[in-house]
Design a protein that fits this description.
Layout lengths: L1 H32 L7 H15 L2 H8 L6 H19 L3 H4 L2 H25 L5 H36 L4 E2 L7 E2 L1 H31 L1 H8 L1
Antiparallel strand pairs: 1-2
Helix pairs in contact: 1-2, 1-6, 3-4, 4-7, 4-8, 6-7, 7-8
Keywords: Endoplasmic reticulum, Fatty acid biosynthesis, Fatty acid metabolism, Lipid biosynthesis, Lipid metabolism, Lyase, Membrane, Transmembrane, Transmembrane helix
EC number: 4.2.1.134
Pfam family, one: PTPLA
């Protein structure tokens, strides 16, 4: 138990350092270069962002082996949404990487994750600050839907490029008469994305009630 708790603390610390670096980098670049910094956000922080998102796949494993008590499906949906949008949509289309929506999306992701991993690290040590607890379980309610809208917008912006370049579209040779037109796949995924958003928001409300109920607040104050 102590070993697993220490492992989770180190994991949260790594994620906190990565997302804090990205978040600080974005703010400093914007304060220094203004709007000019938005277009090359992906080029300046994309590598670290990809590393952090790949590392987050471990959270699914943590739930499966029982060292994390979070619900599997909501966390799985949140992680796969980011992986698909970051690696399949943004990373594969250089023309999309310079769009302002990428900067907005990265800002929302990192703002949420800096708060979440800070809360997780302190909770591993049995430390609970009510303002941080409130922020962790309240900030996601407005920001997660905004991030989903940004993901949907990023997908819509990428569609003309997938259509022009034929990226990921597959046409099987004879005797098969089957082909996969990837823009159609992305359009269908938009439906999945917004349907999953409703489920995840419901789960976020449930988590907020579970952690910020009157009884829990009194216990953490004491």
């Amino acid at each position: 138990s102590f070993t697993m708790n220490m492992y989770l603390f180190v994991y949260d610390l790594m994620q906190f350092c990565g997302h804090s670096w990205i978040f600080t980098n974005m703010i400093i670049r914007f304060m220094t270069f203004g709007k000019d910094s938005l277009a090359d956000t992906f080029y300046s922080i994309g590598l670290v962002m990809r590393f952090c998102q790949l590392l987050s796949v471990l959270e699914i494993l943590h739930i499966l082996i029982g060292i994390d008590k979070s619900r599997l499906l909501p966390r799985f949906l949140q992680i796969t949404e980011r992986i698909i949008v970051l690696f399949v949509v943004i990373n594969s289309q250089e023309e999309v990487q310079g769009k302002y929506v990428v900067c907005v999306l990265f800002f929302l992701w990192n703002l949420l994750d800096v708060v979440r991993y800070t809360y997780n690290m302190l909770s591993r040590m049995g430390i609970y600050y009510l303002p941080l607890t409130w922020l962790n379980f309240s900030l996601c309610l407005p920001l997660y839907p905004l991030s989903v809208l940004a993901k949907g917008f990023a997908i819509c912006v990428s569609l003309p490029y997938f259509e022009s370049f034929g990226t990921y579209s597959i046409k099987l040779p004879f005797p098969f008469t089957f082909s996969i037109y990837f823009p159609y796949v992305l359009k269908m995924y938009l439906l999945v994305l917004f349907t999953g958003m409703c489920f995840i928001i419901q789960n976020l409300f449930y988590e907020r009630m579970a952690h910020l109920g009157t009884g829990n607040i009194k216990n953490k104050r004491s």
